[in-house]
Amino acid sequence: MSSLVINHPCLSKSTYLTGKQCHLRLWHDFHARDLATPADEALQLVFDTGHEVGELACRRYPGGHLIAHDHKHVPEALEETRRVIDANAAPALFEAAFEHEHVLVRADVLDRLPDGDWRGR
């Protein structure tokens, strides 16, 4: 993992998809976020469904560790991910954060294998 000071826009799955759909929206997401319209009912339902799926994943892997820092706290999420992996204690990680060459990845589920390696789910 690279340094934890992120002072540049990071590419994520969400920002990539936004940019493919509309270049102007991508620009606004980084430079004029305060102009965004609030989520409507349909979008809120998508968010809520995502949270429910996350809760089900946490129940599927008991004893796993949720990296709870959101997209506004990327350095903290990167640090917590590193700390939990280094501690070698959690059998699974949820929303683990990794950054490489300005690309941010949040893994839904990382499952620790018996040999100590990790598998993404």
Walkthrough of the structure:
By secondary structure, this protein is an alpha+beta fold. It folds into two domains: 9-38, no CATH class; 39-120, no CATH class. 43% of the residues lie in helices and 20% in strands. It has helices at residues 13-21, 23-31, 41-60, 74-87; strands spanning 65-66, 92-100, 103-112, 118-120. Strands 1-2-3-4 form a four-stranded mixed beta sheet. Helix 1 packs across helix 2. It starts with 12 loop residues before the first helix and ends with a strand.
Can you list the strand order of the major beta sheet? 1-2-3-4
Parts with pLDDT < 50 across at least 5 consecutive residues: 1-6
| Overall pLDDT confidence | 84
* Strand element count: 4
> Count of helices?
4
* Biggest sheet descriptor: 4 strands, mixed
Which descriptor suits the 3D outline? globular
Q: Give the percentage of residues in beta strands.
A: 15-25%
Q: Tell me the structural class.
A: alpha+beta
Rg over CA atoms, rounded to whole Å, is 16 Å
Through-space gap between termini: 20 Å
Query: How many structurally independent domains?
Result: 2
Helix content: 40-55%
Write down the secondary-structure element order: HHHEHEEE
Concise summary:
The chain has 121 residues and is of the alpha+beta class. The protein contains 4 helices and 4 strands.
State the main characteristics.
disordered N terminus, 4 helices, 121 residues, alpha+beta, 43% helix, 4 strands, single chain, globular
